[in-house]
């Protein structure tokens, strides 16, 4: 499915943010499916009549089954500066996750050391540092309940692979649909109920606050939580 105007959450001369659908890949992988960065390049080339394609830099990534806001750079200067913003943790990322198990504490901070097995694409959490591990920290709070499902807002302080998925699972709260990390069954749509809700940062060129907000997917389930 091609990117269109309705998918654009933010755009200026330097950056473009897109609503990623669950199931999209951000960059090319072994599946050979068309990645989101290529779709956005085509969108920009058509919009601005650039027959030789448009520059697009990947600033960060979201797992394939995750939906929400994803940011790209439209110039090499913006890419370099946004890479520094993310590396220096000068961006606030907010996610929403839906779980079936109510967390024992309504809010808290989780710290683990994560080890990724790239062959199996699975991350294992440890409570103390081990060889090859990366420190991973997030804060969470319970913000709502609807029909036996619980909505959790998550602010990751680090940006590790599968971080939110595996850390919520350690709480006994695997994300709905995420059978890789403890939910009893997967989604037929290949999605999990984890949504990148918001990105906030100081624009690397304009030096102004940027607040990019992603609506919830309309899939017969997610949109019921829009009022929380």
Tell me briefly what this model is:
This is RluA family pseudouridine synthase. Pfam families: PseudoU_synth_2. The protein is of the alpha+beta class.
Features:
228 residues, alpha+beta, Pseudouridine synthase, pseudouridine synthase activity, PsdUridine_synth_RsuA/RluA, PsdUridine_synth_RluA-like_CS
Give a verbal description of the structure.
- The protein has 228 residues and is an alpha+beta fold.
- It has a single domain (5-216), classed as Pseudouridine synthase, CATH 3.30.2350.10.
- The protein has 3 helices and 11 strands.
- Strands 1, 2, 3, 4, 5, 6, 7, 8, 9, 10 and 11 form an 11-stranded mixed beta sheet that branches.
- Strand 1 (8-11) and strand 2 (15-20) form a beta hairpin.
- The two termini are 29 Å apart.
- It comes from Pedobacter psychroterrae.
- Keywords: Isomerase.
- This is RluA family pseudouridine synthase.
- One of its GO terms (biological process) is pseudouridine synthesis.
Can you lay out the helices and strands and say which pair or pack?
Elements: E1 8-11, E2 15-20, H1 36-47, E3 57-58, E4 67-73, H2 76-87, E5 91-99, E6 107-117, E7 122-126, E8 134-146, E9 149-156, H3 163-170, E10 194-202, E11 209-213
Parallel strand pairs: 4-10
Antiparallel strand pairs: 1-2, 2-4, 3-4, 5-9, 5-10, 6-7, 6-8, 8-9, 10-11
Rg: 18 Å
Q: Given this structure, which CATH class is correct?
A: Alpha Beta
Query: Proportion of β residues?
Result: 25-35%
CATH architecture: 2-Layer Sandwich
Average pLDDT across residues?
Answer: 93
**SS-based structural class?**
alpha+beta
SSE run: EEHEEHEEEEEHEE
Largest sheet: 11 strands, mixed
Distance between the termini: 29 Å
Shape: globular
Q: According to CATH, what is the topology? A: Pseudouridine synthase
Q: Can you identify the CATH superfamily? A: Pseudouridine synthase
Helix fraction, binned, reads 10-25%
Number of strands: 11
Number of domains: 1
Which residue ranges are poorly predicted, with pLDDT under 50 across at least 5 consecutive positions?
Answer: none
Total helical segments = 3
GO molecular function: catalytic activity, acting on RNA; pseudouridine synthase activity; RNA binding
Pfam family, one: PseudoU_synth_2
Keywords: Isomerase
Organism: Pedobacter psychroterrae
């Amino acid at each position: 499915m091609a990117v269109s105007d309705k998918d654009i959450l933010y755009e200026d001369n330097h950056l473009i943010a897109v609503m990623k659908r669950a199931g999209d890949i951000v960059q090319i992988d072994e599946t050979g499916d068309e990645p989101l960065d290529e779709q956005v390049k085509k969108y920009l080339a058509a919009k601005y009549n650039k027959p030789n394609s448009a520059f697009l830099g990947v600033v960060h990534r979201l797992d394939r089954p995750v939906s929400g806001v994803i940011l790209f750079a439209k110039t090499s200067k913006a890419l370099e500066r946004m890479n520094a913003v993310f590396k220096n943790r000068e961006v606030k990322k907010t996610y929403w996750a839906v779980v079936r198990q109510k967390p024992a504490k309504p809010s808290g901070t989780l710290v683990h050391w994560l080890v990724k097995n790239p062959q199996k694409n699975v991350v294992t959490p440890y409570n103390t540092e081990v060889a090859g591990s990366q420190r991973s920290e997030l804060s969470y709070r319970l913000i709502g309940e609807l029909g036996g499902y619980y909505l959790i807002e998550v602010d990751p302080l680090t940006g590790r692979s599968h971080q939110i998925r595996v850390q919520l699972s350690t709480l006994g709260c695997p994300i709905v649909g995420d059978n890789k990390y403890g939910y009893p069954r997967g989604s037929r749509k290949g999605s999990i109920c984890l949504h990148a809700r918001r990105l906030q940062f100081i624009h690397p060129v304009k030096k102004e606050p940027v607040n990019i907000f992603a609506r919830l997917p309309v899939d017969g389930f997610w949109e019921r939580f829009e009022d929380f």
